[in-house]
Known about the structure:
This protein is of the alpha/beta class. The protein has one domain: Aldolase class I (TIM Barrel). 33% of the residues lie in helices and 13% in strands. The protein is built from nine helices and ten strands. Strand 8, helix 6 (190-199) and strand 9 form a beta-alpha-beta unit. Helix 1 runs parallel beside helix 2, helix 4 (129-135) packs across helix 5 and helix 8 runs parallel beside helix 9 (254-270). The termini are far apart. The relative contact order is 0.18. Residues 281-293 have low confidence and may be disordered. Bound molecules: phosphoenolpyruvate (PEP) and manganese (II) ion. Phosphoenolpyruvate (PEP) binds at residues 40, 66, 70, 122-124, 145, 175, 210.
Amino acid sequence: MGSDGPRRVWRTETSVPVRVRLSSGVDIGDKGFVVIAGPCAVESATQIEAAAEAVARHGAHGMRGGAYKPRSSPYSFQGLGQPGIEAMSTSARRHHLPVVTEVMDAAQLPAMLDCVDMLQIGARNMQNFSLLKAVGKVKKPVLLKRGLSATLEEWLLAAEYILDGGNEQVVLCERGIRTFEPQLRNTLDLAGVAWIKDRTRLPILVDPSHATGDRALVIPMALAAAAAGADGLLIEVHPEPAKALCDGVQALTPAMFGDLMVALQKVLQAVGRSLAVPGLEHHRPARPVEVRT
Ligand code: PEP
Ligand code: MN
């Protein structure tokens, strides 16, 4: 891999694998497959409570939900901001789920740090270098999404900014890239996932929701990601997708999410893996889902 900088050894490339521990004791990048699920956006206390209850009931290891939303249109719902993060944190804690949420601006960090477990850098901010430097200085895991048209090398260089800033807790997230194909929101680069696993020490999640933009395609791509060696999934689930303020067409219903968790276990079993189990006793163990053969 080339670079015009003086560094010869990339921090993403050294041989010790990175394991990122969530507050529940679940490690991303270890043997167990980790599923983080929830709505695109926090919309209300009622909606986020229903979402937390549903994803916990079906065995998710963590919860997602955006309160600062990077929307293409300034007239679309922009998110509830810090009150939304607090509502999600309350519900997630009630259901013993660590929380992942997007930070769009370094100024949002101080208030956010107390109530979230992992900071998401969205695709649109993958090369926001001042934001990357800011999260490089905090002691929280960072989920770094791939830019809309970023090469694998550009993505890893973005991860280098965070690692070089002193934060070793970086997890990548493949969320599809923009290609010439108009039928799909994005094109899921599963070969890129295998490449990352082969060439770097960083864990990687797959987001089949943004990669496809269509709930009918989410389960097949989630299963393919598990078979391809991803360390886990970031997945959109909404208690009532038809009423979602953001990305409803790609949100799984709670029942579909339950079906996915059952199917996932079969695929993982076939490739000699299984769902992660939280390690800390004060946390609810991931609910084992019955696998019918
Ligand atoms: C999201 O996860 O809600 C999101 C906005 O994703 P991305 O940055 O991948 O578009
Ligand atoms: Mn979304």
